[in-house]
Amino acid sequence: MVIPRRYKRLQQVLGNRQPDLTVLTEDVHKPHNLSAIIRTCDAVGVFEVNGVSSKSKMPTYSQVAQGSEKWVRLNTYPNIKNAIASLQESNFKVYAAHLSQEAVDYRTIDYTQPTAILLGAEKYGVSQLAADLSDGHIIIPMLGMVQSLNVSVAAAVILFEAQRQRLAAGMYERVSLDSDTFKRVLFEWAYPEIAAVCHQKGEPYPSLGKEGEILSESRSNVN
């Protein structure tokens, strides 16, 4: 049984998740960068992260994530065109971190609207195709000799601006996930081993009580 105090913590964190704020990475291959991005997403309240790796498999998580990969789902796509189209079809505006003549200061974007932040490979940035398909380009103004930040640092800068705007708008004060998703993910967080068994058996998750206990009438599902 999950400890009631931990169960309340899981409820609180899940209640802060922002399903309409996400990150899309394109060919971010270094595990420590992807892990750092996911860790920042967890801290900001991002529900899911999206990734495209056209040249190899998505990199594995590293210790930088410090377990945050358990709390932020990573969706993968076969190519950047499909990834952007899927997000746009779900009403997301996709903003690429990309230096161009059309690029605007990242702080001018309204992140209280459904937003996906597109970040490119460590050395080359987003592809031209990704830039063309995006709804806009954003930049972080640089006043020193270097022209860009590390991709995970750039993600953190932009995401915390998004968090600032959403906090000011009171968006963390209400649950944004639909009820079914909230219940499903809460069970997976509280009882990951039992959730895995239910998946294998093709059975629904047991019902939970107010303090996270599995209700007696549902115990047959996990035997």
Distance between the termini: 15 Å
Main sheet summary = 7 strands, parallel
Shape: globular
Query: Which residues form runs of ≥5 with pLDDT under 50?
Result: 61-65
Order of helices and strands: HEHEEHEEEHEHHH
Integer count of domains? 2
- Under CATH, the homologous superfamily of the largest domain reads SPOUT methyltransferase, trefoil knot domain
Radius of gyration: 19 Å
Please give the share of residues in helix: 25-40%
What percent strand?
A: 5-15%
Quickly count the helices. 7
Q: What's the CATH topology name of the largest domain?
A: Alpha/beta knot
Question: What would you say the CATH architecture of the largest domain is?
Answer: 3-Layer(aba) Sandwich
Nearest-integer average pLDDT? 90
Q: Walk across the major sheet and give the strand order.
A: 3-2-1-6-4-7-5
CATH class of the largest domain: Alpha Beta
Total E-strand runs: 7
Task: Looking at this protein, list some descriptive labels.
223 residues; alpha/beta; 2 domains; seven-stranded parallel β-sheet; 7 helices; Alpha/beta knot
